[in-house]
Every structure is written in structure tokens, then in C-alpha cells.
Amino acid sequence: MDKQQILDLYDWADGVCFRHPGRGEVLTTVVGVIHPREDREREVRACADCVIRMEDIRREDAARSGSAYEPGRLGEALR
Ligand SMILES: [Zn+2]
């Protein structure tokens, strides 16, 4: 699976990447939701570079632990 195929699994919209806030509004997708104790829930958004990196890490983890790797599920994993 190439990078574009992985990116196509996500829905993209303008937002601020949680690891690259200095870049301002870029194309991002939701990779998680945080629930601050006294605040409403907030989406965690990541840019394409970060999604690819996170998918790489998940693929390596899956290979190490012998479990199946399925791309396109970053948001679900953190929920
Ligand atoms: Zn990023």
C-alpha cells in the first residue's frame, strides 16, 4: 500500500496539526479525541506527514507483536 492509498482512507479538512501547530491551517484528519475533565471534548487533528508516520509506527508494532495491521484506523485506536 503506498502513502496516497493510506491517506485516501481518511477524511481531510483544514485544521491545525497537533504536532505542527506552527504551520497553521493545513489539510488534517482526526486521529483522536481528548476529553479534558472540565471542558468539552476536542478533536486531535494530524497532517499527512504525521498520519504516515503514525501508520508506519502501527505497522511496525503489528509486525513485532504478530498482530494484523490494518491502515486507516488511527482515530479509532485512540477513541
Ligand atoms: Zn503534522
Quick recap:
The chain has three helices and three strands, in the order αβββαα. It is an alpha+beta fold and 79 residues long.
Overview of this structure, please?
The model has no long low-confidence stretch (mean pLDDT 92). By secondary structure, the chain is α+β, with helices and mostly antiparallel strands. A 3-stranded antiparallel beta sheet has the order 1-2-3. The chain has one domain. The two termini are 25 Å apart. It has helices spanning 3-7, 48-65, 74-78, and strands spanning 13-16, 25-34, 42-47. It is built from 3 helices and 3 strands; from the N terminus they run αβββαα. Helices cover 35% and strands 25% of the residues. The longest helix has 18 residues, at 48-65. Bound molecules: zinc ion (ZN). Residues 17, 19-20, 46-47, 49-50 line the site of zinc ion.
Low-confidence stretches: none
How much helix, percentage-wise, in residues?
25-40%
Determine the structural class based on helices, strands and strand pairing: alpha+beta
Rg of Cα set = 13 Å
Strand content: 25-35%
Bound ligands: zinc ion
Task: Write the SSE topology.
Elements lengths: L2 H5 L5 E4 L8 E10 L7 E6 H18 L8 H5 L1
Antiparallel strand pairs: 1-2, 2-3
Bound molecules: zinc ion (ZN).
Observed structural traits:
single chain; 79 residues; alpha+beta; three-stranded antiparallel sheet; 3 helices; globular; binds zinc ion
